[in-house]
Design a protein that fits this description.
Elements lengths: L7 E5 L6 H11 L4 E2 L2 E3 L13 E3 L2 H9 L3 E7 L2 E6 H9 L4 E4 L2 H9 L1 H6 E7 L3 H10 L5 H15 L7 E4 L3 H15 L9 H15 L1
The structure holds adenosine-5'-diphosphate and guanosine-5'-monophosphate.
């Protein structure tokens, strides 16, 4: 295969449906996929590291980034600001690398509307198999208070209502099966015409060969 362009892989779901888990598996499967590390004003959870899961910023710092045009998209989620820094995304896509976004539906809409998003976005929405299973998973993560869990459950309905805006929708029942489906989607989407800038040249060469035979 010749050169290829990167995809902007957008993964959204209600909180607890399995985005971070699948995002991590995808990067373990192919370490050329760059993860878009978001900035957020929410406090770090135990085990989270600055620059790995998020860039943890004050509201003032975050607002300065927005004002400076440094954000590809941003949104308020659960009372905190979240956003995807623009520069690393543009650099990766130019270099032919895929970028993975773990963002909510508001971010998904904004990324799809950007210049590079219109050409290279691949959006996948994850649904939980049931609402009771969603709540169980949120609790099993063991990182949020009862109040935060209740807030996230409330927001889930709103998030789920945006499922139809996505290219693909996966019900994350069995984790291994969902991961297999996700890999299949990414593998196929990398072959999209718009992702293969060399195709015109390849076909031109094929045609020259035809000419030479005549
Ligand atoms: P999100 O990033 O969407 O908030 P996480 O990836 O943190 O969700 O998953 C929430 C919890 O559910 C984690 O404890 C994770 O291990 C678990 N989980 C994810 N997918 C599945 C699955 N298919 N079956 C059972 N548990 C899962
Ligand atoms: P959490 O606090 O659980 O890490 O994330 C809460 C929600 O914010 C999730 O739905 C997550 O996808 C979303 N989110 C994380 N980063 C971004 C971002 O950069 N932009 C947007 N729009 N949403 C984000």
């Amino acid at each position: 295969m010749g050169q290829r362009r990167g995809l902007l892989i957008i993964l959204s779901s209600p909180s607890g449906a399995g985005k971070s888990t699948l995002a991590k598996r995808l990067r373990d499967w192919d370490d050329t996929i760059r993860f878009s590390v978001s900035a957020t004003t929410r406090p770090a959870r135990p085990g989270e590291e600055e620059g790995r899961e998020y860039y943890f910023r004050t509201r003032e710092e975050f607002e300065a980034m927005i004002a400076g045009g440094d954000m590809l998209e941003h949104a308020e989620v659960f009372g905190n600001l979240y956003g995807s820094p623009r520069a690393p995304v543009e650099e990766a896509i130019r270099g032919g690398q895929d970028v993975l976004f773990d963002i909510d539906w508001q971010g998904g809409q904004q990324v799809r509307e950007t210049g590079i998003g219109k050409q290279h976005a691949l959006s996948v929405f994850l649904l939980p198999p049931s609402i009771s299973e969603l709540e169980k998973r949120l609790r099993s993560r063991g990182q949020d208070s009862e109040e935060v869990i209740a807030g996230r459950m409330q927001k889930s309905r709103d998030e789920i209502s945006h499922w139809a805006e996505y290219d693909y929708v996966l019900v994350n029942d069995d984790l291994d099966a969902t991961f297999e489906r996700l890999k299949t989607i990414v593998t196929a989407e990398r072959m999209r015409k718009s992702q293969q800038p060399d195709l015109v040249g390849i076909v031109r060469n094929l045609n020259s060969e035809f000419e030479e035979r005549q």
